Amino acid sequence: MMKGKWAAGIPPRHLTWVLPERLAVSERPGGRTMTHRKVRRQEEIIWLRENHFTVVVSILESPMNLAAYDEFNMPHCHEPVPTTGDQSVALVALYSDLAVRLREKQTVLLHADELGDHVIGVIAGYLMWAGRLNGAPEATSVVERLFGRQLGPEGRALVASAERIPSAAS
Has this prediction a pTM greater than 0.85? Predict the structure, then answer.
């Protein structure tokens, strides 16, 4: 059993609140593939649990970390969003799941391997789909300000894919 300051864990890297106290994003707990550390992953999962996150949503194509979430009794779901090809089916499933969880007042952490274009594009698309933002230009601008970086080609392609699917308000 952990004691002292480590008992509360450490926050995942690049944790960013998209919807305060409801929806946050970060890089994968434990770090990206090349820098992943088991101890750090454990500390970050403990932090998520101690800070009342109700679910971790992984959009990775592979099932990385899912066994660790089970080991630490951290509720999770795997909603893979491919990095290439048709992403619309995966986006609709993910966005529908997020909408239900947020309506239920769950606190959600969404992650991929790193906090980059893939996650940021997915989030911009969700904010559009949920009717919180109007169209790709506004969604792109808002997430660029929120994350302090310009959205690259992969992120812009995800926003374009999300713009083509019927919104939750439809």
Answer: yes
C-beta of residue 88 within 8 angstroms of C-beta of residue 37 = no
Does residue 5 surpass a pLDDT of 60? no
**Burial degree of 145 (CB within 10 A; 0-12, 13-18, 19+):** exposed
Domain 11-164 top-level CATH class: alpha beta
What are the backbone angles phi and psi of residue 131, rounded to the nearest 5°?
A: 80, 15
Quick one: which of 70, 158, 66, 68 has its CA closest to 120?
158
| Residue 52: burial class (beta carbons within 10 Å; 0-12, 13-18, 19+) | exposed
Look-up: residue for tokens 């109007």? 134
Domain ranges of the chain: 11-164
**Rounded Cα–Cα distance for residues 137 and 160 (Å):** 10
Does 4 have pLDDT greater than 70? no
